[in-house]
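Reproducibility note. Readers wishing to regenerate the assembly model reported in the main text can use the exact inputs given here. Chain order matters: entities are listed in the order in which they were concatenated for prediction.
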Amino acid sequence: MVLAQDATTLDVPDVAWSSFAPELLLTAAALVLLLVAIARGRQLLVAAPTGVVAVGLGVWLVSTDVVVPGAVAIVWGLALPAAVFAFPHRGSLVQAWGAGVALAGALVLTGWQFVTVLGDGAGGMTPQSALAGALANDGIAFFTRITVYLTALIVLPLGYGYLRDRRINRAEVEPLLLLAVVGMAALGTANDLITLFVALEVLSLALYVLTGLARRDRRSQEASLKYFVMGAVASAILLYGMALMYVATGSLSLPTIGSVVALAGTNQLVSALGLALVTVGIGFKVALVPFHLWTPDVYQGAPTNITAFMAAATKAAGFAAVLRLYLVAFPGLQGLWAPVLAVLAAASMLYGAYVALVQRDLKRMLAYSSITHAGYATIGVVAVTDAGLSGTLWYLLTYAVSTLGAFGCVIAIERRRRGEVALVDLRGLGRTSPAVAGILALCLLSLAGMPPTAGFVGKFVVFQAGIEAGWTWLVVIGVLSSIVAAFFYLRIAGVMFLETADDDRPLPASSLGLTTGIAVSATLVVFLGVQPQAFLHLADAAAALVR
Amino acid sequence: MIQLAYAAGEANEVIEATSGVIGAAWLVPALPLVGFVVVLLATRTLRDRAAVIAIAASAAAFVVSVAVAIAVLADPASYVRPMPTWIDVGGFTVTFDLLVDQLTAVMLLVVTGVGFLVHLYSVGYMHGDERYPRFFAYLNLFLASMLILVLAGDLLTLFLGWELVGLSSYLLIGFWFEDASNASAAKKAFVTNRVGDVSFMVAMFLAFATFGTLEILELVEDAATLSSTTAFALVLLLMGGAAAKSAQIPLHVWLPDAMAGPTPVSALIHAATMVTAGVYLTVRMSPVLVASLDAMTVIAWIGALTALLAALVAVRQDDIKKILAYSTVSQLGFMFIAVGVGAFREAIFHLVTHAFFKGLLFLAAGSVMHAMANRTDIWRMGGLRKVMPVTFATSLIGWLAISGIPPFAGFFSKDQILTEAYLHGFGGVYVVGLVAAILTAFYMSRWFFLIFLGTPRWPADAHPHESPTTMTTPLIILAVLSAGGGLALNPVHSGPLYQFLAPVSASVEGLGLTPAGPLTEAVLIPVAIVAALVGIATAWAAYLRRDVSQGVVREPVRGPLAELFERKFFVDELYEAVFTRFGRRAAEVMVWFDTRVIDGAVNGAGAASLAVARTTRRTQTGGVRTYVGAMLAGAIVVVAVLMLQVR
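Running the prediction on these inputs yields the following structure tokens for the assembly.
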């Protein structure tokens, strides 16, 4: 077991292991949950020994004064067998609880990292380098972990009933989700090209499978295949760009590349070509125009909870890689890439907003909206300032909670409709189920950037950073695109509140998990809009990077 | 202590107030906000009792406002009520601090006063509506938002209120959404306002880039340091936001449609309070405005043109509320004339009197519609004087007030705006304003004559009757204010209101403005009165003397010019053609591009493998080939651009 290895090395006090403790926990949890699933009727056969080992490990950790990870291990070690006992014939509930407790543990561990290692006590951060520079435990890593773990933790209950209704609540869902999360968090910490690429592949492979989860649904299969084929091409381009980067600089380490790339001796032509190919590859992953074409099909075809997860978490992780690549490895080439990225951002903001205008399918509309939001987040990247960096990280968090809430409402409607959710299906929802309609409207307002929601503060902070860095034209385009975007968010709100319902329209479904997930997202949308202080400070502190 | 850069009167001292009456100012927006939440959550259980809670909330807000106003009157200063921080990131801090000064006090009284009366009026007007509680919830939300707007000590929190009033206005315009035109009017209002928001947001970014803060007191203090180009841009960007909210050309299109909402909403939001937010904003930022005389001239002309064109349209409308709607646009134009010529206090004065008489006229219109079973065509009315005595009498006062007949409120405020325009050297603006004033008297007389005087022209099945007391009481209160408000507040040019507002309105002395001609106030005042009388007399000749009472139910005067006014200068059609259709077409082209052009291009490029393509085309992965092709094409462009830069 991975956790067991953990034990053998920890007797030498080593910061390195703790620097990816959350990912270790999640990887272990993913593997154990897979084993539990394989064990079928004899789940306890897996759960009991795992529990004993985890509790033992935890006790030992606590006894060596590593209290928090120890406690997390103990809690998880007790929770798993307890879940097996509590839900003897409901394997998927065991999976969900196992994964949920693991994710909560990962969040706790992230906080523990901040308190013990990263934080300097005054709210600032001291970045740490680990594994001979392969990992950077710093601001980007920390904030990405928070966004990704939080997202996954909300997605789990959000999708539970939905997957059951569609009869695709298979045992591999949670382990795959956890592995994707591990990949995403690793992407946030990766500080050399190889680690970065491996992390990207880990998360991508898990997502390809999750997208195709609905085996009987042609669209899901199609989406999965499209995503896979195009993702493979993008990965190849990215890898080729990385190889060229290595040729030009002689190093795989991002900080080293950063210090070498702008020197007179390096081959500018090769590094420019490498940079271009990396831009294309990574542009695909975060869905910037014109590398966005996969997004609408995949978002529409994938099971909705997976779409929500992709929109919120993948975007955050992808942008973590973007930030690290451009701000750590390529700041010397700023003059080259910043204008190109700015044009891509402007194109994404306008194109996404315009095309969303004429969509009829809600998931497709939200897919185009995610393309616009990738554009907004890019403003913080091209600013190449600390304010831009923390602005982008913060923006991604606000986008994550808003989009999770919106997709949560889509799930609620879709569960009863048993099929696609078109705009007309929302008619009169404000009357028939005001709560769902109200929350959907709230999340859409947040996506449109209306105060006092999270989305407004998010947009304001990145725009602010853009203006300070002199990107006035880009910000003006951002503001303009937000008017266009307001049209289609408003259209949804209008259909819900200003049109009368057809009588035979089924009401949205509700279940404990779904309600909890939606409620948590909606609360966060309001909370981050009205009292964003705590997280803004964290984002501010996250500008501390391993360079 | 900071001394503010106002020179019109003695500068205000800035005092931090955490206790006492000013310390409780946060209650003013908080009370209706609580009312909103309570009523919304308990809609089902409260039913009709919702109104009681909502009215109590608005009444309490009014009482606190009065107390706050008295405190400011007793001890004039700029009070800052510290509140929690909203955003604090990288040296940029925004707090929810409240700013309470003379301007705030006036606005608080207008908003909560008219707001309370409209709440009261709605009890009768909305009685029996199936979403009765929700209506009151929205009214409370609006009130809270507007109060946040006027109390904000920071442009960003002001913007918060700004957006929230937009939202509540949207909800209230579309309140009777069963009628599709209401729903589309709501959307139009929202989207037009978003256009203004863009301008406002860019203005805020510019202000922050220049001053390093968005705190209003600091902005106005540092305004003198602005370079003329920055000031010009900043003022016009702010005006862009103000123009949308206050329905100035070219963003005026939403307001007349917004009248589709329930009449109390028209009175409160689209006549008395929300639409004045733009005027408030520009007056609030007046020290910034005076940094650019060019920008002020633009504002004055926007105001003048709006006043004139909207008045021309109002002349040819037949809908009882549409006339008032265009009249509102026109009157807001007068306020912007005042702002543009540097008569900031005159703008606020007109804002206040307009709130009285336009609130009154709208509520009277609602009373008439209530009596006529929601008929709105003024050609189908007439002779209502006898059946609705209270509504008639109060409307009479409103009509005289808006027409500019002394001693009613509108006379003082409008006359003083025109006088200031002339004395500050804006001769052209003065003439245009005077023409608009004549037209105002004309169309309002037409409105009044056709509804209340002459012989009845209503259909046989209409049984008009006077409205209930909850509706007539607000009418009477507003009528009293419309009659005596001007005289009481500011009968002469340096009356009590102007002295009160002096510390918060920037001085234009440094701009070197000289009168446009030799005339003095002693000449200009009679000119204004004559103008009003001319307008009234013409309307009398056209609609009362030559008797339209004899069953004439359509406008007697026709012609191409009349057609132009009637169709509102075809602005809606123009916007429809340019923006809506163009936008939709552009979006369609992009979708088409996404699905077809790329497909075609790739197919063309892969002509050699056409045979293979044909067999794989109908498979599920057909799109993938296209998409990959597009991605590669994009890649080639990016690579090419970067390589060319290195060359």
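We highlight two features of this model. Residues 1-9, 597-622 of chain B have pLDDT under 50 and may be disordered. The CA atoms of residues 390 and 498 of chain B lie 33 Å apart.
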